[in-house]
Amino acid sequence: MIQLTESVIDGALSRVETGLRRYCWIQENVHARDVTQDYEFQNKFNAFYKVRRGSEWRRHFYTLLESSKADGITFADALHILLEETSKLEASFASKLVATLHPEKPVIDRHVLRNFGLRLPSGTDREHHCVACYERLCENYSALLKSAEGAMILRKFNSLFAWPKITDMKKLDLVLWQIRL
Known about the structure:
This protein is mainly alpha-helical and about 180 residues long. The chain has one domain. The chain is about 65% helix and about 0% strand. The protein is built from 10 helices and no strands. About 30% of the residues are buried.
């Protein structure tokens, strides 16, 4: 894992606010709207999470997001359903869907993975290995939440941004996403 020094954390925090506001809007609206039909929601979600997929792929994604609101969904299930529906193994987007409905879950992102020294798998049995990678990411976040570095991130985040009602996981996620190696 990268060294989370005070200066690295401060630099990341200085770039968090715009994304934080966008994230809060998504979280405030996801359960209040039919995301299969609400193009304002889709446009803001697409912009925040950098969804650059065709309309057919997006239709499957937002249908799964909408249908998962009531009972939630696991990462493994989201990954598998998106693979079946789109013929693409989309670990990052499966994690974004899950994290939208379960804000205590992390998002797979290349910057965050790199910060933790993880990589998405290539080769055979990728679906199984993506699930294992996601589980390692969850474990790494859990360890970070319990560490002195995690406590420092949360203290600094809360002092700068007292207004949002978001999970500690998402606070860490937003900061780590801004740390680019």
